[in-house]
Amino acid sequence: MKIAIYPGTFDPITNGHLNIIKRASKNFDLIIVAIMENIKKKPTFTTIERKEMIEACIKDFQNVKAVVGSGLTVDFAKKNNAGVIIRGIRAVADYEYELQQATTNMLLNDEIETVFYVARPEYSFLSSSVAKEVAYNGGDITKFIPEEIISRVKAKLK
Length: 158
Ligand code: ADP
Hints:
Layout: E1 3-8, H1 15-25, E2 30-35, H2 47-58, E3 64-68, H3 73-79, E4 84-89, H4 92-108, E5 113-118, H5 128-136, H6 150-157
Parallel strand pairs: 1-2, 1-4, 2-3, 4-5
């Protein structure tokens, strides 16, 4: 069974994240979306809220589940029998950070591969922060955030 983890902050999950999940779910038997702590970020939503929102968006995928992870991503992957870490790349700006992460993970565990999915053009500008900024200012977030969670996101940011 080919298992992959898709780690991230997901604060909250966006249409860009969901598109990566959808594409990856066709390439692997099981995708574990892992809500991990990023020490550089102060999330708006609690881990439980982020997990519930991901679950609302992945309910139609039979082979995708959401979990709250901790510790090193490679250790978390190994514990879950995942041989692959999935990440998304939007623009050149992502590349340097993602390369650094992937290389570090390679040095920590060379049995686990990082696989990158290139963002679709309609999502290449999209981040959780952009979506939150638009929601905070009362803008329309239907192009950015899955419809299952729009009311939750608006309620938190209004
Ligand atoms: P992290 O704090 O780990 O970067 P994020 O939730 O911001 O967590 O992102 C998780 C992963 O999803 C990262 O690899 C990021 O580049 C990717 N990603 C984020 N937004 C998009 C998008 N719009 N399209 C494709 N990939 C994305």
